Amino acid sequence: MVRLAQFSADCFVSAAIALVAEAGPSAASIPAIARRVGAPTGSLYHRFPSKAAVLAAAWAEVHGDFTAALVPPLFEGRARDAAMTLVDWSRARPLRARFLLLNDFGALVDGAPVPDDLRAEIARQEDVLDRAFLSLAGGHASAAEAAALRFRVFDAPVAALRPHLIGRGPIPEFVDDLVSGLFDNGRDALQGQAA
Amino acid sequence: MTIRYSAQTEGGRKIPLHDGEGFEGMRKAGRLAAATLDFIAPYVKPGVSTAALDKLCETYMRDHGGIPGTIGYHGYQHASCISVNHVVTHGIPSDDKILVEGDILNIDVTPVLDGWFGDASRMYAAGDMGVKARRLVDTTLESLLAGIAAVKPGATLGDVGHAIERIARRERFSIVEDFCGHGVGQVFHDAPNVLHYGRPGEGIVLEPGMIFTIEPMLNAGRPDVKILSDGWTAVTRDRSLSAQFEHSVGVTETGVEIFTPWPEPAALRAAI
Q: More exposed terminus of chain B, fewer Cβ within 10 Å: N or C?
């Protein structure tokens, strides 16, 4: 009697993350994911109905990890720490950082239908992150001020990390200085102005 | 009896390395599996139900000291799997499934004897099969034998899968990737998984003492399969014919031992 291999969903999610991080979304085909795990494709389909589903699960896993790391400093009003946490998180998890910060969810699943539970989980994570950022902004910021803060906490650190993630090399220490420098002149977020 | 384990793991699972006592246990269980498949051959004919064939297999296994290992396995209730025409694997025996002239079918049995699982399957035909069906069946058998020929210490499971794949592709048949062979011994399904496709040199390196099944499934059409609502029956999505052969084998110091010996290929071909 043949076997439908007993691999956990986590095995396939980890393989999908690694494949996307190493060679982009096109590399994470169902056969490639299964081959990386050493499983038959049926074992993968046993747990995920489609390629979009396993990639969405991978996104939920990595984005959830990212959110969990950033939310505490954001809610506590520590903008510089939040930006530095983003750098530290990327340095400690280079595969996950390449997967998350070099890709866009919509492009990753290429517009294919995503199971409702995964879509809901990703939306929940995004809501948590949004609320944490709004908490940091203090509710007093103008649109321009909020955009400036978002730039310093998210966009600029990601831009500083991006060439090193693409190059797959270690993240040099000067990136820390670069990101930390965004908050010099006592401008540790708008909560300083709002307080 | 001592079970050692390979230093290699598969997804965190240990791969057993069986000793001489384990090989002897597999020989006995394997011979019973092969004998059951020989015994049932003359009963495969148009007009017989797959449930009747299953009952005959069960009686034979029990009469010879074996217990059908499939009964109770994840809720499965039959002594065999009987997969007819476009059923790829895990066909459930049924009183309603009556064989007709030209059907091809796989019968898969796993008697447990003295605690060891002998797992084997082979193809049969009800009456005369068509030319394409014959080519599919012959090629599937050839692919299994090619896979077995690749088994030796130092070879890899990728070598085995590649050998199977090469034969199937030569004849433009597709290989089912959804299911695989498996380690076997005192448990039904053990490490390692044995894929029926692969790249030379990749995967687990074979070591003396490893015991597993090789059981390629080839389709006349596309490789895609779906599982029916019973949770077991796997069929080709395009309803093309499918064929499968299976042996349980062990890696020896110098090569491979087949635990589930059939007649020689020529005689087996004549018996199908």
A: N
